C-alpha cells in the first residue's frame, strides 16, 4: 500500500513539474505584432485575434493548453502624453489592491503592476491574477500588455511577462520639428 502511495505521489510531483515548465516555456516568442511604433512578440503557439475600434487596437492571445490564461495588448493614441501609472489609474484598468513599479521598456519609461481580482463565475468566487505593463511614448502612443489567468501570481508568470517585455521593440520617434529662431531687427 505504501509503495502504491509513493508512486502516486511521485507521479503527482512529476505532473506538477511538467505543467510548471510548460507554463514557464510557453513557446518561443516569434509572432510579431506591430502596433504604432511598438513591435510586440507573442508566443508562437498562442493563437491571436485582433479587434479594432475607432480609438484602439486590441490583440488577444490565448494559451492553447489553458484558454483561461491569456495575454492582451491594447494600443491607443492619447491627445497628450501622461505618466503610465496615471493612465492605468485614470482609465480604470488598475483598481483595488495592487503593487506597482516603474520599468524601462526598450529605453522608454513604463509602469508594471501586479494585482489580484475576485471574479464571480457561475455563482463561484474565483481569484484571478493580472500582471500589466504600460508604456507611453512622448507623442501619446500607449501600449498596455496584460497577462490574466485564474489563480495566484507565480514566479513563472513574472518570468513570462519579463520575457515579453524584454523582446518588446519600440521604433524611435522622429525628431520634433524645431521652430526657426526669431530674427531681431535693429532700429527703425
What characteristics describe this protein?
seven-stranded antiparallel beta sheet; 188 residues; elongated; three-stranded antiparallel beta sheet; alpha+beta
Explained architecture:
The structure is a single chain. Helices cover 23% and strands 46% of the residues. The protein has 3 helices and 10 strands, in the order αβββββαββββαβ. The protein has a 7-stranded antiparallel beta sheet. It has a 3-stranded antiparallel beta sheet with strand order 1-2-10. Helix 1 runs parallel beside helix 3.
Radius of gyration from the alpha-carbon trace, in angstroms: 22 Å
Helix content: 10-25%
Strand order of the largest sheet: 3-4-5-9-8-7-6
Helix and strand pattern: HEEEEEHEEEEHE
Q: Roughly what is the average pLDDT, rounded to an integer?
A: 83
Main sheet? Answer: 7 strands, antiparallel
Uncertain runs = 18-26
Number of helices: 3
Beta-strand percentage range: over 45%
Termini distance?
109 Å
Q: What is the overall silhouette?
A: elongated
- The count of β-strands is 10
Q: Strand pairing plus helix content: what structural class?
A: alpha+beta
In short:
The chain is of the alpha+beta class. It has helices at about 1-25, 85-90, 155-165, and strands at about 30-35, 40-45, 50-55, 55-65, 65-75, 100-105, 110-120, 125-135, 140-150, 170.
Write the layout of secondary structure elements.
Blueprint: H1 2-24, E1 29-35, E2 38-43, E3 48-53, E4 56-63, E5 66-77, H2 84-91, E6 98-105, E7 108-121, E8 124-136, E9 141-150, H3 155-166, E10 169-170
Antiparallel strand pairs: 1-2, 2-10, 3-4, 4-5, 5-9, 6-7, 7-8, 8-9
Amino acid at each position: 500500500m505504501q509503495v502504491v502511495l509513493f508512486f502516486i505521489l511521485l507521479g503527482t510531483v512529476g505532473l506538477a513539474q511538467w505543467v510548471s515548465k510548460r507554463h514557464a516555456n510557453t513557446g518561443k516568442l516569434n509572432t510579431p505584432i506591430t502596433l504604432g511604433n511598438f513591435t510586440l512578440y507573442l508566443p508562437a503557439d498562442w493563437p491571436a485575434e485582433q479587434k479594432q475600434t475607432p480609438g484602439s487596437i486590441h490583440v488577444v492571445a490565448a494559451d492553447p493548453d489553458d484558454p483561461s490564461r491569456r495575454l492582451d495588448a491594447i494600443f491607443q493614441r492619447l491627445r497628450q502624453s501622461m505618466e503610465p501609472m496615471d493612465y492605468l489609474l485614470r482609465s480604470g484598468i488598475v483598481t483595488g489592491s495592487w503593487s506597482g513599479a516603474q520599468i524601462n521598456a526598450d529605453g522608454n519609461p513604463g509602469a508594471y503592476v501586479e494585482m489580484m481580482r475576485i471574479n464571480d463565475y457561475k455563482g463561484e468566487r474565483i481569484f484571478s491574477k493580472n500582471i500589466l505593463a504600460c508604456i507611453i511614448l512622448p507623442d501619446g502612443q500607449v501600449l498596455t500588455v496584460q497577462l490574466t489567468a485564474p489563480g495566484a501570481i507565480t514566479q513563472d508568470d513574472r518570468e513570462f511577462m519579463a520575457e515579453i517585455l524584454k523582446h518588446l521593440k519600440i521604433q524611435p520617434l522622429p525628431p520634433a520639428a524645431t521652430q526657426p529662431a526669431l530674427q531681431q531687427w535693429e532700429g527703425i
